[in-house]
Design a protein that fits this description.
- The two termini are 26 Å apart.
- The chain is globular, with a radius of gyration of 17 Å.
- The chain has 11 helices and 3 strands.
- It is mainly α and 220 residues long.
- The protein folds into 2 domains: 101 residues, no CATH class; 77 residues.
Length: 220
């Protein structure tokens, strides 16, 4: 299973990208990013709970984002302790969910996933992680209910006009897979185009590409 991680905090030395700017040519076509109604950035997205933490804690949380994959069992212990101290920092739950998954402890991952979504249902990664879980179990009605049938980031979050690249990848990876599972292949391919423009080697890009390929729905 491809893991969805929030990597949008404290990124350094990277520039914001406006979706309608410089087109990227693919097979003679302009980039699908041009048609998006929001800006994609690689700069850190402000988060009150995270921003109030001491700098040393912020730095350690950023480090844990990468460690959940390479040393998940160690990360689990530290993330659990951090959640006790800072229960309002959303990305800690997201990282803990991923750490449990990489450690093969799926029941505990699911428990964290449900707790996080119940605690912060408007937080994007809590929402799409839970939507992905539901879609993979065929609960399409529940996915539609929790997203209020909004399958575009600008519609789901109408007050926002800037999204971190990890948010755009995570959202389109999950929503594209949902569309593919439903047989809505044109919508799934549109999500895949966005993913390939942003991160062609990402696990979610590869998952959706493989799903469409297996269904014979990839365009030549």
């Amino acid at each position: 299973m491809s893991r969805i991680r929030d990597t949008g905090k404290k990124s350094k030395g990277l520039k914001a990208r406006a979706a309608p700017s410089a087109p990227v040519e693919r097979n003679g076509l302009s980039s699908p990013l041009e048609s998006l109604g929001y800006t994609i950035t690689e700069e850190a997205i402000s988060d009150d709970a995270f921003d109030k933490l001491p700098n040393a804690i912020q730095d350690r949380i950023n480090d844990l984002c990468g460690e959940v994959q390479v040393a998940p069992r160690v990360a689990i212990k530290e993330l659990t302790a951090l959640i006790r101290k800072f229960p309002d920092v959303n990305q800690l739950y997201n990282y803990l969910y991923n750490a449990y998954g990489y450690a093969g402890r799926e029941a505990e991952a699911l428990r964290v996933l449900k707790v996080h979504y119940q605690k912060s249902p408007s937080y994007l990664f809590a929402k799409i992680n839970y939507a992905d879980y539901l879609a993979r179990r065929g609960r399409m009605d529940k996915v539609e209910e929790m997203l209020d049938n909004h399958f575009d980031l600008a519609d789901l979050y109408p007050s926002r006009r800037v999204f971190h690249v990890s948010e755009v990848i995570g959202f389109n990876g999950v929503i594209g897979y949902y569309h593919a599972l439903k047989g809505e292949n044109e919508k799934a391919r549109r999500c895949l185009d966005i993913l390939q423009a942003l991160s062609p080697q990402h696990g979610l890009t590869e998952r959706l590409s493989q799903k469409l390929d297996n269904q014979g729905q990839l365009l030549a």
